[in-house]
Design brief:
6 helices, Ubiquitin-like (UB roll), 215 residues, Helix Hairpins, 4-stranded mixed β-sheet
Length: 215
């Protein structure tokens, strides 16, 4: 990024920066950067803002540990605002909410909650805390994880054949969770699966092996 193209003068040396979750595309927060904050962000890959209330630089998560790792930074057409795609290490809001724009009536969509679940599974994998079912699965080994995926898949089929609509959703949730644990153990991320889906179905066409018809 060419910092010299940005218009810091419009807001007296500051530029608004919208932070977005790179996995879910959910808006996490809005902060302000001066040139020094942006330079630090670009240098170490962690989002740093300028605090208007304290008149100082502050790295997001410097006390809480809930940092924002930069994936990409883009400016708008007028070069007076930034969009930062990031990977959050925890809640973005000081209230403990995932997003500063969360409220009691907001409902997290599918990709949003799956990304949160993936981060939780990755955290369990890294820390291996006692008493965690996810940790117990990792400890049991990949064969057991694969077995659980098969068992939960069968439960989905049984619920469907029994026309048990509420159970289909419940069993599907169990299947997605166990599949995500297995993916993590195999070294894959949700983004890997998303990339394949985009490549296969991004144009609305089923791959030739499946018939080549439009979805």
């Amino acid at each position: 990024m060419n910092i010299d193209r940005l218009d810091f003068e419009k807001l007296d040396g500051l530029i608004p920066a919208i932070v977005q979750d790179a996995a879910t595309h959910r808006v996490l927060m809005l902060g302000f950067m001066n040139r020094a904050a942006l330079e630090l962000t670009l240098a170490d890959g962690l989002v740093t803002f300028w605090s208007r209330s304290r008149n100082t630089l502050w790295r997001k998560g410097e006390t809480s540990g809930n940092t924002l790792a930069v994936v990409s930074i883009d400016h708008d057409c007028d070069c007076d605002a930034l969009l930062i795609r990031s990977i959050p290490a925890g809640p973005a809001c000081h209230t403990g909410a995932i997003s500063c724009f969360a409220n009691s009536s907001a409902r997290r969509d599918g990709p949003d909650i799956l990304a949160e679940l993936e981060r939780t599974v990755l955290d369990r994998r890294a820390r291996m805390p006692e008493g965690s079912y996810t940790v117990a699965l990792f400890a049991a080994g990949r064969a057991r994880m694969a077995q659980k995926v098969g068992e939960e898949g069968v439960e989905v089929v049984i619920a469907a054949l029994e026309r048990a609509s509420p159970r289909i959703a419940e069993e599907s949730a169990d299947l997605l969770y166990h599949l995500l644990v297995l993916l993590v153990d195999c070294g894959h991320r949700l983004e890997d699966v998303s990339d394949i889906l985009r490549a296969r179905f991004g144009g609305g066409v089923i791959p030739p092996a499946a018939g080549g018809d439009a979805i």
